Amino acid sequence: MFIASLDCMNRPESIDGKAVEVLVDCPGVQGLYTYRMSKDFDVEPGDIVSVTFGGRQLGAIAIRLISISSISNIAYQLRNIDAIVSQGFFSKDYWKLLERVADYYQTALIQVIRTALPPGLLGRSQRRIRLKLPPQNPDLLSGMQGFDPPAQALLNALSRSPQGDYTWRYLQRQHQQAKAGLNQLLSHGYVESYVAMPSPSRPQKRQAVSLLSINVPNDMDELTKRQQEILMTLQRSGGDLWLSDALQRLRTTSTTLQRLAKKGYLIIEPRERLRVSSHSQAKADQPKMLTVDQSHVLKQLNQLTGYAQVLLHGVTGSGKTEVYLQAILPRLQAGYSVLVLVPEIGLTPQLTDRFRARFGEQVCVYHSGLSAGERYDTWRQMLDGQPQVVIGTRSAIFSPLPRLGMIVLDEEHDSSFKQDQPAPCYHARSVARWRAEIADCPLVLGSATPALETWVEVKEIGDQDAEIKGEGMHSPRAPTLHPSPSTLYLSLPNRVHQRPLPPVTVVDMRQELQSGNRSVFSRSLTTALEQMQANGEQGLLFIHRRGHSRFVSCRSCGHVMDCPDCDVSLAYHQPQDDGPAHLRCHYCGYGQGHPDVCPSCKSPYLKYFGSGTQRIVHELQSQFPELRCLRFDSDTTRAKGAHRALLERFAAGEADVLVGTQMLTKGIDLPQITVVGVVAADGLLHMPDYWSGERAFQTLTQVAGRAGRGERPGQVIVQTYTPDHPVIGAAKEHSYSAFIDHEIEHRQLLGYPPYGRLVLLRLTSPTAADVETAAQRCAEICTKQLQSRTVSAGNNELLVDGLTGAGVLGPTPAPIFRVARRYRWHVLLKLPLDMAIPDLTGLRSHFPKSVRLTIDVDPLNLS
Question: For the whole model, what pTM was predicted?
Fold first, then answer.
């Protein structure tokens, strides 16, 4: 149990000029509220205080100290802080981090706080009062006579408790003048006030399914074939699963399992389960023998004693995770905690299994896919200060670890680390850098395809003509930069066991069409799948879209089935479990049944265009009926635990081919895969973003890296209509240097990051005219702001329309003009690196209430 203690001093005298903004624990309350500080109160950010709010006494977190003169326009009379309940509940540095996020991303601090803290944090906490002396201490009993009756009543009540401890709420109910008595006892040091994070009142229990005998009997004639398959699969899974996991893993229903239980083959019973996260059944693991490259990297990491930003650039399969594990161990032993961030929730089961096999119960998981109770319990566990490893996604960067020894961003290049909406539009990599600086600990950024911003910031360009050992790991040419002493570049240029990177075959789909092949699979990919099937191996097929087809069109009149709320077509999704086919919008979630005839001309001739994961599975089943397929996308992994269940089924050999989207490219380690097919690479290349080429190269390189990670060599087949594209050529050669050479020249020419800065202003409204007018006004104001800064700087080269200086692009309608019945316009600011981002928060005062403005600093999504 976490306990933060402080003597609570409540003095009524106020100080002119000092106030504190607090976050009040009251459902539905928006924003921060200001309270006057009483004399001799040393309230600091992170303290838990007691305030009067709406006639009630509530707990609140002190967020920020301010001057009363700065809030002269406040709409209510300031009240005093009633008491400090607990001091230092969160560290000052934690609130400094939140303020920096709010300032840089130009977002209200309350929105940052809501992003950082789990729901109901204060509501679940308890203010408690306890005696400083044991209840039977004679000094305590003799001192009672000198107190007023309310104080004596409280002392009597506390002395009757075996621990000398009660909740403040209980004491208030028992004694009408408890507050006055408490103040007297606190001032004389007889009691102390503290906040305790309560444990769950009852252990959480879940249904578990277990075989009654670990060996499935041979005589199962009374069972159906399907029931026999269920028992055999359960046996291969260790004979014991949570019921929710069993339903997914065994692909069955509760009714079927109940029937098997009645027949005496298995038992279903409730079992206690900690809410902090699902626990792995992985066997204990020992550190592995490192390669020469891994040993060098580990030695360098272990020598770091303070802040340093480290780029760990290792090809896919080079053993970065093992380096993380061995670098974390000495920090845990020294009493420090470590934060490990991954880009997708789907990555956490595999990574968690490896970490728990090494560190046991010191590992916990934190991400948005957990229930509110799980997030709260994990947060409570983090606050106790014990050394632990927290694995999580983007929001885990705000984990309140008191003693932070290292931060690791695995797959640091991934765009999932950047939040587009709601505000704050933060990038976890930037926040991690700030947090590592505050904690004075190393930040390790690991990737086979580092983000260009990270490469330019960390890599010392002085060795631009020197080669880094290993295939595809050459140092590209770049302009001379001078990284700070706190940056470090480390390389893992080879796979473990000297396994080669898989050869990549690029197939020109134009030639496939000319030769009469109208299948979604090229002849090369078809041959590879046939050989894979004959050899009993497994494969992976990647396509960047989910669903069956991108849109449905009438062949008679050309009508396209569009979303009524967005300016996009509805994607076709095949029926599941004998249900009806349906159309769905991938932007707002609107769905409808698939029509039998065209709504426009009543023609029955409807055709599907474009491919998604469902269509690829359908084509596989049609051309290769004996191949077993699993689909791994956001549609099949919506249920809790589905990521783990699907990957475990594939690893257990229940499928031959895994068909999925970008989720498959993010560090998943499947050593049995020998064939990787990229069905349609062109969909990655032509996106309305300045960094579409970088994203395409990263995705292709990462998905190619899933092949040949085990004993058997792998091969990769990339299908494209633009085989001469520079990104395709770089991915074919696994050449990060070739990609960087091309991309750096392109970014420099246009002044895009990392050689310039961008701020995207997104304006939306349910009224088209309102948002267009607001966007024009926004562009005008921004242009004047930049011109005034240019004039004050005395730099005639900073022209608004110049590529080398500050500029305003737009206003322009967003690439998708309408989403969820809101019209969208964009204004893009381009700034030199040495120009500070202007304060844009005042723009909202120039727009009508119907117009929403989102300020996206350093955007990655311009659509």
Answer: 0.78
